Amino acid sequence: MHTVVHGERTLTDIDYARLSKLLNQQRPGHPAGLVDWLESAEVTSSRAAPGDLVTMNSRVEVMDVHTRHRQVLTLCYPGDAEPAAGLISVLSPVGSSLLGLRAGDVARWLTPHGEGCAAQILAIQYQPEATGDYTR
Fold first, then answer.
1. Which pLDDT tens digit goes with each residue over 82-119?
2. Residue 10, C-beta contacts closer than 8 angstroms, at least 6 positions apart
3. Could you give the residue ranges of the DSSP H alpha helices within the chain?
4. What pLDDT, in 10s, does the model give residues 35-51?
5. Which strands sit side by side in the sheet containing 59-64, from one edge to the other?
């Protein structure tokens, strides 16, 4: 299990461009620090993205480090979010904590009430780049 500290995230060039545009269009209130880590992330070509990297539209299996509860989440853009169906917006605390991490890493975030949460990324079940889909 690897805990990632600020600045140790990798984004694809396409995700970086789309998220930069999205944040520029958003009203104030996006997750604190998202702009900072977006600016400090390592950016790689979408074609060179490792298969165990959480990118936009990736489906990941995570396990809560406290309760050991497992679930499958798909990281999506805000307009596609349906939390009850496991479709988690990248602008949510959970979504922004997952993006750019790799299988084995631990994502950490705060709930709206300030409670600390953490989940280990057990597996990447689907990643668009791994299937040659660079349009998602």
1. 999 999 999 888 998 999 999 999 999 988 888 999 99
2. 41, 42, 43, 44, 49, 50, 53, 100, 102
3. 13-25, 34-40, 93-98
4. 777 788 899 999 999 99
5. 2-3, 105-110, 116-126, 59-64, 70-76, 87-89
Is the pTM higher than 0.90? The answer reads no
Which regions of 1-100 does DSSP assign to beta strands (E)? 2-3, 10-12, 42-44, 59-64, 70-76, 87-89
Using alpha carbons, list the distances in angstroms from residue 129 to 15, 34, 81, 88: 11, 22, 20, 19
Q: Do the strands 70-76 and 87-89 form a parallel or antiparallel pair, or are they unpaired?
A: parallel
Q: What SS3 class is residue 36?
A: helix
Distance CA 37, CA 100 (A): 10
Q: Are 119 and 107 in contact (CB under 8 A)?
A: yes
How does strand 70-76 pair with strand 10-12?
unpaired
By the 8 A CB rule, do 124 and 51 touch?
yes
For strand 42-44 and strand 10-12, is the pairing parallel, antiparallel, or unpaired? parallel
* 115 compared with 34, residue with greater pLDDT: 115
